[in-house]
Amino acid sequence: RCLLHDTKGESVFADDMRSVAIIGGGITGLTAAFYLQRKGVPVTVYEASDRVGGAIQSIRMQGYLAEFGPNTILETSPKVTQLVRDAGLASRRLDPDPKAEARYVVRYQRPIEMPGSPLGFLTTKLFTTRAKLAVLREPFVPRRRDGKEESVAEFVVRRLGQEFLDHAIDALVAGVYAGDPYKLSVPQAFPKLGQLEARYGSLIKGQIFGARERKRRGEVAKDRAGKFSFDAGLQVLPDTLRGHLGEAVRLNTAVTRLTQTPDGWTLDLREGGQATRAEHSAVIYAGTAFRLAEMEVQASMPLHLRTFAEIRYPPVASVVLGFRREDVAHSCEGFGMLIPKVEGFKILGTIFSSSLFPNRAPAGHLTLTSYVGGGRFPELASLPPEKLFALTCEDLRVLLGVRGKPTFQHCVFYPRAIPQYNVGYGRYRELMADIEAKAPGLFLAGHFRDGISLSDTIVSACNVADRAGQFLKTAPADRPEVQVPA
């Protein structure tokens, strides 16, 4: 990189014009940069904050290891497994304790283990006989043929009944999206559900016959995918990727403006209070939808980025509490518990963190990670920490038999946590494709486009790295002509 000129106090730099700028140092941006670098493509990651990892936060305090964003990565694609190997992290990977397979859903004010087999479903107390019969009738419910985009609630009630929605799916939606099943779209938020009905005419038939096709593709359904973390928490992954990238990662550097040029893109930056510029052949935006809406972009054609401000991100508070083992009546052997809204509790659910992986709590203690807010109770997420601790302890007292004061407590507030793939979200995805078509060399990737889970964003990053790499191989004469406005 060389200094070109200095005008009005602004330093202007020109990077290798076969390079890629990546905006956002979360897992999407870091993974895309890592694989582009392995292809021999010069990259620079611009991260506005002072750390990498985005929502991933692992903190070691007082003998506890607390996770404040995701707790695990789902191994839904071979690309996830490959990233761990390529990053040199196979030896630091941790699989969950085999005893932690149980998952609980709250009903009758107590956690009831979800059945893991057809016989278990028939005997579980989680559902009434009427609800069980509705599930058994599901293969005979006709598929929808009018093409209407359904909410998750509409879809589930039509195929499985109201009780299954209220006491199972509502809890699942809160655990995955912190969202509202009456607003989330089936084809956008849970596309494989709609695909199962369209192809097999039934969810149950689709689970049986679709498993063979997933196996051929090397994919695993999310409900059956293996999950894992690392010896020092999920923060190990972004920190390791940053280590591989070295000086290519620039923290405390905000991109304030993008300008398309005949040769690529000029980035206006604010780094440590100083205005600078950089030039790259291509740009990957791997941030949030609401930041994209705020970005000033001058391209050869209007891009309508302000529309992305409509995408809703409800607030969520992550509350991590530690307790003495003898102060918790429940065994807490399992992944955790999900809580339907009809049960009347304030927390959305709780992960039994110290049961999943070792060294998450001191000997003789438990770590419980609970979530508050979301689309269900957005006003609760911004409560002061002491009130969050109190309401969480009260719910855990009823649900898990917790008594006494926590031996550890810490919380993190995410004002805008998870993008909601609500009914109508398809128009945002169409707009993203339109933007990439109108502005060659600008790529969009991440949780607002390709799925909200860590595994989704890793796959998204791998794919966008391939697309950007292919773009750079294209001769300029083969690319659409760029007419930059004066």
Protein architecture, described:
The chain has 486 residues and is of the alpha/beta class. Helix content is 33%, strand content 23%. It has 16 helices and 23 strands. It has a 7-stranded mixed beta sheet with strand order 10-9-19-20-21-18-22. Strands 1-2-15-14-13-17 form a 6-stranded mixed beta sheet, with no helix packed on it. The chain has a 5-stranded parallel beta sheet with strand order 12-4-3-16-23. Helix 1 (27-38) runs parallel beside helix 16 and helix 8 (191-200) packs across helix 9. The protein is globular and about 65 Å long. Mean pLDDT is 91; it is low at 1-16.
Strand order of the largest sheet: 10-9-19-20-21-18-22
Determine the N-to-C terminus distance: 26 Å
Number of distinct beta strands: 23
| Uncertain residue ranges | 1-16
Strand content: 15-25%
Task: Tell me the helix content.
Answer: 25-40%
| Helix/strand class | alpha/beta
Mean pLDDT: 91
Q: What is the CA-atom radius of gyration, in angstroms?
A: 24 Å
Number of helices: 16
Global morphology = globular
Largest sheet: 7 strands, mixed
